[in-house]
């Protein structure tokens, strides 16, 4: 996989926050930003196998009529909101 350099501009407060988080993980700021962005991109790229399995199970249960669903109004009424 190739790499591309991009120039990004962030305000000083954002940099300060990111530097603190990087130090907590014992990473450099650059490494922390790269890791965070790559991790986020991977999570957006495709659902995990666990999620796909869970959704397939939910669809299967719904098709069989075994899935109990509640309307938003029912949930609000039950929990008093």
Description:
This protein has 81 residues and is mainly α. 65% of the residues lie in helices and 0% in strands. It has 4 helices and no strands. The chain has helices at 12-24, 29-45, 49-63, 72-79. The longest helix is centred in the middle third of the chain and has 17 residues, at 29-45. It is elongated and about 50 Å long. The protein starts with 11 loop residues before the first helix and ends with a helix. The relative contact order is 0.05.
N- and C-termini, Cα separation = 50 Å
Sheet with the most strands?
Answer: none
> Given the structure, what is the number of helices?
4
Average the pLDDT over all residues and give the rounded result. 93
Give the helix/strand class.
Answer: mainly alpha
Strand content is: under 5%
Radius of gyration: 21 Å
Strand count: 0
Q: H/E element string?
A: HHHH
Overall morphology: elongated
Helix content: 55-70%
Low-confidence stretches: none
Give the SSE layout.
Blueprint: H1 12-24, H2 29-45, H3 49-63, H4 72-79
């Amino acid at each position: 996989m190739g790499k591309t350099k991009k120039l990004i501009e962030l305000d000083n407060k954002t940099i300060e926050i990111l530097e603190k988080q990087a130090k907590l993980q014992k990473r450099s700021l650059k490494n922390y930003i790269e890791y965070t962005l790559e991790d986020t991109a991977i999570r957006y790229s495709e659902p995990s196998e666990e999620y796909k399995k869970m959704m397939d199970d939910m669809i299967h249960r719904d098709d069989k009529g075994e899935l109990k669903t509640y309307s938003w109004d029912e949930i609000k009424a039950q929990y008093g909101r």
